[in-house]
Structures are given as C-alpha cells and as structure tokens.
Design a protein that fits this description.
The protein is mostly helical. Helix content is 89%, strand content 0%. The longest helix has 42 residues. It has one domain. 3% of the residues are buried. Keywords: DNA-binding, Transcription, Transcription regulation.
C-alpha cells in the first residue's frame, strides 16, 4: 500500500475501530468486547487494505447505520444477522490473504528445495 493510501485510510480505520469498540461495549459483555478487540488486532493489516475502496466504505457505513437502528429498535435477531453479515468481507479478505501467503511460502519453499537439489 502506498504512503498516500495509508494516509487516506488511517483516519477511516481509526473511526471504524472506535465504532466497533463503542458499539460492542454497549453489550455489557466484556468477553465479547475482548474478543472483538482481539479480532480487530489480528486482522488490522488486512482490513486496512480493503478500507481504501470507496464501495467498501459506503457498504460498511450503511451496515453500521443498520446495526444502530436494529439496536435502537431492540431487534435482537436482526442485529445478530447484521453483525454476522458485517464480518464476512473482513473474514474473506483475511482468509484470502492467508491463502496467498501460504501459496507464496510453498512456492518459495519449492524453489529453495529445487535450488538445493542441483
């Protein structure tokens, strides 16, 4: 990611993290809050890449508003569904990055092995 892209997405990333912390703190469930914080910490680098795309930001913003509306209406089932769906893009980006890294490591390993054989 370029320096310019990092500069553009850094404030968005901070606001996004602050939203999730505040939102899940409302649950009163410290285990959930801690789990969300840990997930955030582990996936920050990958989520930061996707946040540079305007369509992702618009979708995330709309989902955040829907989550707030469901919370205000005390619509627990819809809120659960929204939260689950909201995690999918980050999960998929994380899994894709992990898969790509595994492929690169395997290719590097086979190249190194081939070089050792000669």
């Amino acid at each position: 990611m370029s320096r310019r892209s990092r500069a553009i997405c850094a404030p968005c990333s901070r606001v996004n993290m602050a939203f999730h912390r505040a939102f899940f703190a409302l649950s009163g469930n410290q285990v959930l809050v801690d789990a969300i914080h840990e997930y955030e910490r582990r996936t920050h680098a990958i989520r930061s890449v996707s946040i540079v795309f305007p369509q992702y930001l618009q979708k995330a913003r709309a989902e955040h508003h829907q989550m707030i509306d469901a919370l205000l209406r005390s619509d627990r089932e819809h809120l659960i569904q929204l939260c689950r769906e909201h995690l999918v893009p980050s999960r998929d980006a994380y899994l894709d990055a992990h898969h790509q890294r595994s492929l690169a490591a395997a290719a590097y390993g086979s190249t190194a092995s081939n070089g050792d054989i000669e």
